[in-house]
Amino acid sequence: MKRKYFFFDIDGTLTDRRTGSMVPSAGEALDKLREAGHFVCVNTGRAHYKARKFFDRYGFDNMVANGGMAIVIDKELVENSPLPFEQALRVYNEAIESGFGVLVSDEDSERVACTDFRFYDQAGIRKEPTYYVIDENYRPQEAEHIYKLYISIPVGRQDEALSLMPSLEGLGYIWFEPEYMLIQQDHKRRGIYRMLELIGAEPGSEVIVFGDDTNDLDMFAPEFYKVAMGNGHPDLKAAADEVAPANVEDGIYRVCEEHGWFETVEG
Length: 267
What we know:
A hairpin with a 4-residue loop joins strand 3 and strand 4 (70-73). The protein is elongated. It has helices at residues 24-36, 48-57, 85-97, 118-123, 158-164, 188-199, 234-239, 251-259; strands at 5-8, 39-43, 63-65, 70-73, 76-80, 101-105, 111-114, 131-134, 148-152, 172-177, 180-184, 207-211, 225-228, 242-243. By secondary structure, the chain is an alpha/beta fold. The protein contains 8 helices and 14 strands. The chain has an 8-stranded mixed β-sheet, with helices on both faces.
């Protein structure tokens, strides 16, 4: 058995979305892959600080986070690139001028900053632990970095919002919640290539990726072996080399066992 390089999405792939916890059989599969000598890595769109809680809880060593822009090797953060600064500022200004509220994540933490309560008035509180800094004198152009933007879009204005913020082109965005848009990096494939470069491995068929949602399409490169979870989005399944059973039906474990990936690596 040649050494494989496994990259796993978190939400809906490794975890049961109902509980947010690792599917037990998935955790067992990861342990067996490590014991066999394979490289095991998380690949998530979550910010590094946020993904770190899951990473530490379940004893990972390697991680791609921040939508492909943060790299952790042997538990150490090697790099964590923010959004393109000038482009993020243009999006911020377009959103403000269009009457939308904006929260700025300008550091790798739960802290977000804004100038007023517009985001709260339009969207309510952010749907995850957050430390808010509300300062009428806050100027994002004076920040060193911008990692993410949260833009409140009133219901019914989602389509209009895209036309009002032309600088969004080329930036990743997603609607995790109907009340607001999250602007974040969307380069999971780039994160895999960068990780392989840093550890001295070659991209190719020995790379195996597991995902469940459309944001995982980016890591479904032609040269990788691509596994979509049975509970996943139809578009991802259509792009996969294999569709596993649902994650809560032991999908990860069953696929790894069927392929013989629990066998010890040669040499």
